[in-house]
Amino acid sequence: MQSAMNALNPVLTVAEQMRDACRAHSNMSRAEIEARSREVLRLVSIDPVHLHSYPHQLSGGMRQRAMIAMALLFTPDLVIMDEPTSALDVVAQRSLMVQIKELQERLGFAVIFVTHDMSLVSHFSDRLLVMYAGQVAEMSKTRELFDRPLHPYSHGLLEAFPSIRGPNARLAGIPGSPPDLANLPTGCRFAPRCPLVEPRCTAAEVPLYSVNGSLVRCVLRENGR
């Protein structure tokens, strides 16, 4: 969840919320629910004593890990995380992401990580999907996309992100505003803001082109380069 403080019920303990989830999706007995709740809290490095804590008694990082523990109650194959680090400081962010990677390696589940934090993306993702106006703009291996972005929007995102290495450079923002999703432009949805726009960009819907194993929605890449 983007904000665990809002996702957790403030008048229920962690144990009660896990019990609700287990009763809704399984036939486990009260003793089995208690044992499983303790097990998943240990998985995310929280002492089971906190099963009887209310959300306001936990730190931000502990609340997020408690939410991850709830997601792991039924050993999922896929966990979708929507901005899980947005309310955390940088130390808690890294701690949470390291924990998630360790759990992935141990339990074997996949994660779809929705975020705007480019530093987290670069360190913790294997493949990166760049979205613009509700549509895939580019999909590639993370390292390849950071080294050689193929879509003008991907390039603009990286140019707008400050680097901690090398000489100081002025950040280049992306001019304009995202389109109204109820009144989308013809052809490429990024065309009104794109510095490389051509007449053919707005002529028709742009498909995804394959470029060296990556996918990119840009007419400039239609030759596969």
Question: How would you describe this structure to a colleague?
Answer:
The strands form two sheets. The protein has a four-stranded antiparallel β-sheet with strand order 3-4-6-5. Strands 1-2 form a two-stranded parallel ribbon. Helix content is 36%, strand content 13%. It contains eight helices and six strands. The longest helix has 18 residues, at 90-107. The chain is elongated. The protein has helices spanning 4-7, 14-25, 30-43, 60-71, 90-107, 118-124, 142-147, 152-159, and strands at residues 78-82, 110-114, 127-132, 135-141, 209-211, 214-216. A hairpin with a 2-residue loop joins strand 5 (209-211) and strand 6 (214-216).
Helicity range: 25-40%
Sequence of secondary-structure elements: HHHHEHEHEEHHEE
Approximately how much beta-strand content do the residues carry? 5-15%
Poorly predicted parts: none
Q: What structural category characterises the helix and strand content?
A: alpha+beta
Number of distinct beta strands:
6
Distance between the termini: 38 Å
Quick one: biggest sheet? 4 strands, antiparallel
Q: Give the integer mean of the pLDDT values.
A: 89
- Return Rg in Å: 21 Å
Task: State the shape.
Answer: elongated
Strand order of the largest sheet: 3-4-6-5
What is the number of helices?
8
